[in-house]
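Progress report, Aim 2. The chain analyzed during this reporting quarter is listed below.
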Amino acid sequence: AGVGPAEAAATIGFRLAVGADQFTTMAFLRAARRLWARVLEVSGVDGGSQLQHAVTSRAMYSRRDPWVNILRGTIAALAAGVGGADAITVLPFDDAVGAPDGLARRVARNTQTLLIEESHLAEVIDPAAGAWFVESLTDRLAAAAWAELQSVEAAGGIEVLLADGSLAARVDDAWETRLAGLATRREAVTGVSEFPSLDEEPLDRPARAEMQGWPLRRLAAPFEELRDAADRHLAETGTRPTVHLATLGDLATHTARSTWVTNMLAVGGVVGAGADGDGALSPLEAEARFVEGGASVA
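Predicted structure tokens for the chain:
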């Protein structure tokens, strides 16, 4: 009360999560500024700009193979810089594990230093300007977001959508779509749903209190739950869940398929055994190798 639109607009900042899809992130930030300018225009505010604080998305960080998070954070920070964010926070690579240690915090800080001092991101106002793909994507995102804003207003405003649960339902639907992409391998989380390492040493970090609100959901979580179950099996029995691969023919013949299957099994913490060397030459030989290997599934 007692604050005019122009004065209020000058005190508002936007904290935006940015991901490792670099072009989408660039266009997302550019579209967000365009939308805010339109909001100010229809509110009767001349000029003004959107203050953007970009933070690397916790949803994209993985607990397994957390070192890949360094790459994710770097790409997201680069995209945020090119997209024109005023301030950028790179979360430490062990953020999904627990309270970050000194190394993780240092890497996060130095990521920004390298991008500023060596990539010179701060030297150009809008590096993506004029790039047809980014400009076109910006236009599409801005148009879709403005249509969404209009639909929210037509429904009675954000308070109504929060109260009746429809906004949460739409968020859930969008999340399920992302998970479906991972489950069908249209998308991937490197080190988790693709190219996992069963021999990695887990990081040990102290737990920390989480903020209340909508629960944090990470793309890697469903796969990490499978890995956790496999680790419990290892702790209880001394061996990992193992599947025997009944390969046929010489190594050159089966290696492409056996490597693919081994990688797929490792996503769930399961060892694919029996793919070393040449495959069996007959069904009886394949059976003998299965029995000798001791696996319960082939």
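Residues 162 and 168 are 7 Å apart (CA to CA). The longest strand covers residues 13-18. These observations will guide the mutagenesis work planned for the next reporting period.
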